[in-house]
Amino acid sequence: MPDKAVDDAMESAVGAHFSGLRLEALRLPAPSGPSSPSSSTSAGAAAALANGLAHAHADVASPSSLRQPFVIGVSGGTASGKTTVCDMIIQQLHDHRVVLVNQDSFYRGLTAEESARAQDYNFDHPDAFDTEQLLECMGQLKRALPVNVPIYDFKNHRRCSERFRKVNASDVIILEGILVFHDQRVRNLMDMKIFVDTDADIRLARRIRRDTVERGRDVSSVLDQYGRFVKPAFDDFVLPSKKYADVIIPRGGDNHVAIDLIVQHIRTKLGMHDLCKVFRNVFVVQSTFQVKLIIFID
């Protein structure tokens, strides 16, 4: 291959890359003048970097060009520690740009007849949730619009008609629930899926404690519901959805290593989101060994 063709190929392959981010506007200029290849390339890279950043800073992104939120789904069996994992992630981030949405907020309200026989109602079946409203709320959040999330009364088995939880648009949205991986339409909203995997005995003990203390139920009714509905629903719907997970966290909130790794990943995503807000000509590219700042020195 002629020397000029080699130089052209090398020049076209060189761009300024920073930790998986590429500034498309930056290109190394061809050397001009008698200076040495190494000094001219370095000087050209510095000049291109300064000019490119100055141009990008002036070219502020409009609202329509902002990237969509990063959506994380967190699933697992009842009392597996999903909420604990989510709370630990949010606490470590210390960032108001991360919000939590609970699938439990979207339970269907029971009729008077169903409420009278609530012990025979399967709250762990997919039909127990208003998935259409969940999709509507998540769709609005994905479009950077605030939403009013319902508040469900677990003692009366119905939604509070006059009370809502306002959730503002955020850069990271965590959607948590036992069946958030069950419906493909909900899964398609997610950029990352986490399954919290905890031993069944531990989950049962936590379920008894939670339902008796927080929801005013007696132990016998909790055990009866667990055997009739909770465990079969876990085997039929929750456990099969584990295959869709990108990350599986054994031991739930006790697995600090896994949570720390997830937090670091989210911080990286937030950093990318900030750059995309400021610079319209910044594009996120797949992080590989080749995505680096390369300077060719002859």
UniProtKB/TrEMBL annotation:
Coiled coil: none annotated. It catalyses: cytidine + ATP = CMP + ADP + H(+); uridine + ATP = UMP + ADP + H(+). GO terms for molecular function: ATP binding; GTP binding; uridine kinase activity. The keyword Oxidoreductase does not apply. GO terms for biological process: pyrimidine-containing compound salvage. Its EC number is 2.7.1.48. Pathway: Pyrimidine metabolism; UMP biosynthesis via salvage pathway; UMP from uridine: step 1/1; Pyrimidine metabolism; CTP biosynthesis via salvage pathway; CTP from cytidine: step 1/3. It is an enzyme of class 2 (transferase). Residues 71-257 form the Phosphoribulokinase/uridine kinase domain. Keywords: ATP-binding, GTP-binding, Kinase, Multifunctional enzyme, Nucleotide-binding, Transferase. Transmembrane segments: none annotated. Belongs to the uridine kinase family. NCBIfam families: PRK05480.1, udk. This is Uridine kinase. The gene is LOC125509888.
